[in-house]
Specification:
Order of helices and strands: HHHHHHHHHHHHHH
Distance between the termini: 49 Å
Largest sheet: none
Structural class: mainly alpha
Number of strands: 0
Number of helices: 14
Shape: globular
Radius of gyration: 26 Å
Strand content: under 5%
């Protein structure tokens, strides 16, 4: 019997090693999937009131994430292309760049960004340098694009099935319960992950709405020459940027301030710069500082310390790269919850004054 158990244990260890190696290859999309799962699980469960099947609810949740994101990205790309084309033509940047980039020397002007305009440019040979350049780097471009869509596919599939079968994974893990320690820990970490990550989603939505209102309100009182371009899009991007550690929303509203001030400076009407300074003050105080002081503590979770959570968002990308932005807060919650719940009981410590470890906050120490 012992020999059979040893064989089974060795086989299980081998399977675990293989699965672990495969998981490491896709650690980024899997981490993002867990992040999205806990961020949207409350929304998924709230749809039960509509008596929708589980698969339909999962599709609705995924669509609620994907459709707005696709619209915002598409809108931003279209505006970026249009504005860039106007900027290039206005300042004759092709002539300047052609002096340093050989293949740009054959392009006389930017083609019209329409199907007919691109076809005419192709027929006339105007796009030949661009096509040659893309052909020389086709392998790199193919690798980048294919990896992006592969990771996106893994993220969508894993998130979808976590929404459908997350409760089954929880029930399987609870089979290894030992004196209720495992159950208490898993329930605590599950609740805290949902509180923290769902709070991040609410923070993004709240900051986006505040930024849209602030930017639109500024445009309502500012003269046309000092108006902020595309306030709705800028507000949404500001909310999304609130997830980025350290710099956060500054990567949106500081360039936006510069873009607003540039035509005024070039036009020579320096009196309008007062409005730009007012806009910067509104962005710093109303959009950045107040939500960070008021909303983040309210939406940071039940027991996770706000300062440690901010450190996790800051150090995660530095140490692990892009996916560290999602992995670090998850690891922090898992580790702190273990220290609050399972570790005291494993070491035989008494619960303080009848309070469960689940109710303890790190800032009470």
């Amino acid at each position: 019997m012992d020999e059979k158990r040893l064989v089974v244990a060795l086989f299980g260890l081998l399977v675990a090693v293989v699965l672990g190696a495969l998981t490491l290859q896709f650690i980024a999309p899997l981490t993002v999937s867990v992040f999205l799962y806990y961020s949207t699980r409350r929304f998924y469960r709230s749809l039960r009131r509509l008596r929708l099947p589980a698969r339909v609810r999962a599709v609705v949740v995924m669509s609620a994430l994907a459709v707005p994101l696709l619209l915002v990205v598409s809108y931003a790309v279209v505006l970026l292309v249009i504005e860039s084309r106007q900027f290039v033509e206005q300042y004759a940047l092709i002539d300047v760049a052609a002096a340093h980039v050989d293949w740009l020397g054959e392009m006389e002007s930017m083609p019209d960004l329409t199907a007919r305009g691109l076809y005419d440019a192709y027929q006339s040979g105007q796009l030949s340098p661009v096509i040659d350049f893309l052909g020389q780097h086709a392998a790199l471009l193919t690798t980048v694009v294919s990896n992006f869509f592969l990771n996106l596919f893994v993220t969508v599939i894993v998130t979808y099935y976590l929404l459908l079968d997350g409760h089954r994974i929880r029930e399987w893990l609870l089979r290894f319960d030992d004196d209720a320690i495992v159950r208490e820990y898993l329930e605590a970490v599950d609740d805290e992950l949902e509180a923290v990550l769902f709070g991040n989603l609410l923070n993004v939505i709240a900051v986006s709405l505040i930024a849209i209102a602030a930017f639109s309100g500024y445009n309502a009182v500012a003269p046309a020459a000092a108006e902020v371009p595309y306030p709705a899009l800028a507000g949404v991007l500001t909310g999304a940027a609130s997830l980025i550690p350290v710099v956060g929303m500054k990567i949106v509203y500081l360039p936006l301030t510069a873009i607003t001030a540039l035509p005024i400076v070039l036009g020579g009407d320096s009196s309008l710069l007062v409005y730009v300074i007012v806009f910067l003050a509104v962005a710093v105080v109303v959009v950045d500082t107040i939500p960070d002081l008021v909303l983040r503590p309210l939406l940071s979770g039940k027991t996770t310390h706000v300062g440690l959570l901010m450190l996790a968002y800051t150090l995660g990308p530095v140490v692990l790269g892009f996916y560290g932005l999602f992995f670090a807060p998850i690891a922090l919650v898992v580790g702190l919850t273990f220290a609050h719940t399972a570790l005291p009981r494993l070491l035989g410590a008494d619960e303080p004054d009848g309070l469960s470890a689940n109710q303890m906050r790190l800032d009470d120490f």
